[in-house]
Amino acid sequence: MAQYILSANEMQDCDNRTMTEHGIPSLVLMERAAMKVVEAIGEEYPEAYKFAVVCGPGNNGGDGVAVARMLYQKGCRVRCFTLGNPDKYTDQLKQEIAIAESYGLTIESTFDETAIAQANITIDAMFGIGLTRGLAGDYEKAAVIINEKANKVVAVDIPSGYDANCGKLLGNTGIKADLTVTFAYMKKGLVLADCKAAAGKIITADVGIYLDEPKDKYDIIIDDTILSKIKPRPIDANKGSCGKLLVIAGSENIYGACYLSAKAALSSGAGLVKIYTYKNNTESIRQNLPEAMFLGYNEYNEDELLAQLKWADTILIGPGLGMDEVSTDIFKKTIETVTKPIIVDADGINLAAANLPLLKQAAARTTVILTPHLKEMERLTGTKVADININQEQVAKDFALEYGLVVVLKNHTTIATDGKHASYIVSGNQALATPGSGDVLAGLVASLIGQDALEIEKLLAESGECIIENAFLTASAAAYIHGKAGQKASTIYGIRGVLASHIIDNFEKI
């Protein structure tokens, strides 16, 4: 269903177990890693023949020296530099230097910036996933020169200068790569914060390091295999059996949000969709979305609202709802009484931030899914956007666990979590930064939840507790489809030309 994605500590534990429990020497793993980098370079840059390899004092530097040697043995022109105090080089780096020199490759200790400009490709092997502080001294100077003068840059495991857990730039400068070859499993930092833009294209290479059981403790990146888990529509299906969704959205001055959410739901298989909205919007719905039912309100009517909630199998509340007194009354009564799965988005999240005890009570009764962007998450948690951006997974997990719900935290990498596990969604691109995109996602999540769309075998912990919940993975699948549709739309309309309606038009076949 997905690839695994690891923190720096998790990856280092895997490395250590491979060496200590399974008996594979560190130098063997280093040679495998170097071979994979050389293979990737051959596939991505087959015409390159001049290389500059810049190595640090640790095992990442050892990988780099091994890469330099292999390229040299292939007949390429290679200059290899090792930076730092030789007394602090790891044993593996020293071994790789000795091997390289035995084959006639000169390992240089004085960095020559002209080599960077002359090379077709510069290989960054200064620091790997264990870096905990910013680049300084000769390393920072080298990074500045590489960023300014290199033609193409290939990073070994992770671009130097970034936190492998959260993607944060640790100092003033980090390497900007065109290609990153990472080993065994994806690292979380590669798809988060500053490092996502710096990593370029990412290739995950199998070097013979594997996760030990139980694997369910690791987080995942959603990929195309989740689409195979979407159930086919039964031959005897009817609109009533495909989910009845109530969309509580729109306000006196906002119509588009309720339209986009409802259209996204209908376009992804929801059987019946009813829009409960301000009366100004009903004529627009009649004309533009005849497939949807609708009911308009002018003022808060508790009996009317409760009747709509009773009708529905699933509820989406919030897109364009507004924050006035009527909207607040509607939200509070819905969240106080709801016993059906509910997706809370946009103004619904803003209202939830002011009514957190009610939100927690609702999550104790039924499935609750929140789909905030970073600013909305700030309102929910009180954590500043800048801090969420570099601690995205943990902020989302902490909130989901405390309130007993699912969070789909939208960003350039979206993270979904039930508080125990997280899924990373990287299927989209910048085209999703368009008005209404979030309304489309909310409608898609609600539609798939209402259809019980995923066929997921629930995994149980030893205690018997379910550790993989259907709602969590269904929300993850919706975010993945949303991203793919946006990416596909961008190939038609361009990154800047994508509208929210284009995302709906490009939903994957489900």
Describe this structure in words.
With 510 residues, the protein is of the alpha/beta class. The protein is built from 19 helices and 19 strands. It has helices at 8-20, 26-44, 59-73, 91-102, 113-118, 137-149, 193-199, 256-267, 282-288, 302-311, 325-337, 347-353, 356-365, 374-381, 385-389, 392-403, 437-451, 470-493, 500-505, and strands spanning 2-6, 50-55, 77-82, 107-108, 121-125, 153-156, 179-183, 186-187, 201-205, 219-222, 244-248, 272-278, 293-297, 314-317, 342-344, 368-370, 406-409, 414-417, 422-425. The strands form 2 sheets. It has a 12-stranded mixed beta sheet, sandwiched between helices. Helix 11 runs parallel beside helix 13, helix 12 (347-353) runs parallel beside helix 14 (374-381) and helix 17 (437-451) crosses helix 18. The protein is elongated, with a radius of gyration of 26 Å.
Walk me through the topology.
Elements: E1 2-6, H1 8-20, H2 26-44, E2 50-55, H3 59-73, E3 77-82, H4 91-102, E4 107-108, H5 113-118, E5 121-125, H6 137-149, E6 153-156, E7 179-183, E8 186-187, H7 193-199, E9 201-205, E10 219-222, E11 244-248, H8 256-267, E12 272-278, H9 282-288, E13 293-297, H10 302-311, E14 314-317, H11 325-337, E15 342-344, H12 347-353, H13 356-365, E16 368-370, H14 374-381, H15 385-389, H16 392-403, E17 406-409, E18 414-417, E19 422-425, H17 437-451, H18 470-493, H19 500-505
Parallel strand pairs: 1-8, 2-3, 2-5, 3-4, 5-6, 6-7, 7-9, 10-19, 11-12, 11-14, 12-13, 14-15, 15-16, 16-17
Antiparallel strand pairs: 1-10, 17-18, 18-19
Helix pairs in contact: 2-3, 3-4, 8-17, 10-11, 11-13, 12-14, 17-18
